[in-house]
Amino acid sequence: MFVIVSGDGGFAALAKKLHEYGKTVIGCAYRSAVNKTFQAVCDEFVWITDPEEKVQPVHALGQIGVTDSRNIRLAEQVAKVPEPTPENIVAKTREILD
Prior knowledge:
It contains 4 helices and 5 strands; from the N terminus they run βαβαβββαα. The chain has a single domain, classed as 3-Layer(aba) Sandwich (Rossmann fold). It has helices spanning 11-20, 36-41, 72-78, 86-97; strands at 2-5, 25-30, 44-48, 60-61, 64-65. By secondary structure, it is an alpha/beta fold. A 3-stranded parallel sheet has the order 1-2-3, sandwiched between helices. Strands 4-5 form a two-stranded antiparallel ribbon. The protein is globular. Mean pLDDT is 75; it is low at 53-63.
């Protein structure tokens, strides 16, 4: 399972390829900055409605690569999900964003 925190349409091809390998893809993006094609190819989509303005340094968390520094906090919390099933990841992502 993969969580892609981006609204960039370039990730649609990646999501399609991950589906070919039997992976679940969860997209997460700001409503104002999402590509509709990327949204359509995701198995689940979680909206970010209140972006964090504070900029932090970009880094990787284990196997989670963070390319947008505003998403570090989300990635850190999602990485701590004890049973990483698609349902648990989606629920945790929604909980964090709420």
